[in-house]
Specification:
323 residues, alpha/beta, TIM Barrel, eight-stranded parallel beta sheet
Amino acid sequence: MQYTTLGSTGVEVSRICLGCMSFGDPDWRPWVLEEDEALPIIERALDLGINFFDTANMYSDGESERILGEALDGRWDDVFVGTKCYFEVDGRRQSSGLSRKTVEQELDASLRRLGTDTVDLYQIHRWDYETPIEETLRALADAVHRGKVRYIGASSMWAHQFADALRTSERLGLESFATMQNHYNAVYREEEREMLPLCEREGVGVIPWSPLARGYLTRPHEEIDATDRGETEEHMYEHPYRDGGGDEINERVEEVAEDEGLSMAQVSLAWLLSKDAVDAPIVGVTSVEHLEEAVEAVEVSLDRNDIEYIEEPYETVEVSGHE
């Protein structure tokens, strides 16, 4: 495993972050793994040198956090864990949004499920148009001062909103967002226009979600519909992966993978890891084999010609993932 400093935090994290959305309760999503299947994957991740884990309060309505907490019991000093709030949990209206009430109560609930007094990274899962950013930032800063949170982070939003949040923190002397968890992969590159340059300028760590485009970049595009996730989750097709040259990019990833003796997932991750702005893509897996494959991608160095070949068909697509 390779490691990097997360933004300007000084914290050393693995170049692969294990996303834990796929651990919890299959009643929440049919592809989610229950605890007995999830624990071996988390254990193997630790064996492979992964020390960075990401979850959220809304993943399986908190069950993902509980499973991760069970797996990490007694090992909190050796890992860096992030969780999130914003979306509704278990049908509770007061669990959604980013008001002080929601931030404080959902943080406390997450800490209980994780089984820890402090979480390393607490992130807002989206932008709340109903709550002034000053209120959210003050609540997050208070959580840091109380020792419940070490760093705060943000997720998909418009670059002007993120810039406003950073300036507001500076103006008010509050804790500032240390990370940005945004939507970025070889078939969705809209973040390159404004968000990534902003993060690089401000020293913000970038930890992209959906680095494999919900599986679209792991197999030939004509096979996608045959997967369990492709058959059961319409949300997979809400993102414009097939637009803007997506199918041709998919084909070129397959071609490079065949030429290099790699899997499409490894080529796709290696492409993302080649970007200077990216610290650690958040990779979700449902098997030990897929996890090991992702970790091996850290050692892959793509030729500049291959990177340009993969990128060449890309065209502007509709912004996706902010809501």
